Amino acid sequence: MIDRQLQELNNRFTEVNTKLLLCVASLNPRDSFFVFDKEKLICLTKFCPSEFSCVKLMGLGSQLETFIRGVWFDDQCLKLKGIVDLSQMLVKTKKHIVYPMVYLLVKLALIFPVVTATVERCLSAMNFVKNRMHNRMRDE
């Protein structure tokens, strides 16, 4: 049964999707950023290269380290339950100005599910139309 479920998950999510989900999960603020992983967050930037120039990428590592040190000792961050709460806290405390690249990562993490769902719907509709037209074609 477990093998069947694993196979279904592997069929549903590609390696790229799985990698994207793991990278986004690194921003989860639960348990004092327990799953925070700087390398995965840097890897997240590869999914949107137009947003991060080479210069920005050089400063991202140090900004992530500074950010995580700052939030570990912030009482407001202990109450955060998800990425949405994190983005709201960054704006309320004006930390989105201090950590602009971290805030950009948070925004992208919030946008990815919407974007991928929209693309999936478009491709699904396109396949439906394509198959319907294909089935109606005749020799003439």
Helix content: over 70%
Give the beta-strand count. 0
Mean pLDDT metric: 76
The value of Rg in angstroms is 20 Å
**Structural class determined from secondary elements:** mainly alpha
First-last Cα distance: 50 Å
User: Looking at the structure, what is the overall shape?
Assistant: globular
Total DSSP helices: 9
Runs in which pLDDT lies below 50 for 5 or more consecutive residues are none
Largest pleated sheet: none
Order of helices and strands: HHHHHHHHH
Structure report:
The protein contains nine helices and no strands. The protein has helices at 2-12, 15-25, 30-33, 38-44, 54-72, 75-78, 83-92, 95-98, 100-136. The termini are far apart. The relative contact order is 0.10.
What labels describe this entry?
single chain, 140 residues, mainly alpha, 9 helices, 0% strand
Write the layout of secondary structure elements.
Elements: H1 2-12, H2 15-25, H3 30-33, H4 38-44, H5 54-72, H6 75-78, H7 83-92, H8 95-98, H9 100-136
Helix pairs in contact: 2-4, 7-9
